[in-house]
Amino acid sequence: MNVSLLEVLLMFGYRPCVICGAEANAVDLTAGVCPECKAELAKELASLQRQFDAAMLEGDRGAAAGAVDAIEVFQDRWGLRLTAAPTVAQMRKAAGDPLASL
Ligand SMILES: [Zn+2]
Description:
The protein is built from 4 helices and 2 strands, in the order αββααα.
């Protein structure tokens, strides 16, 4: 029997990261993303969060609502959330988005 390295890795619960393709233990993957890429995603999410905060400070509700939309898409796509950040619903309400009351 000729087993490739990849097959051995898969046998032990290793999966390629959906972003960088690096083999990672399945228990370390979040939505198929390895810990290193997850850290990068968290940085991107934090930057979206800062865009929202800045827009709110400037009173630019349109920009704030846009940032919330981007954050929601991001969270749905990657299953990630900044634990210290308010929820999408809370941010929508703060931005005065009429969808928030639905
Ligand atoms: Zn990765």
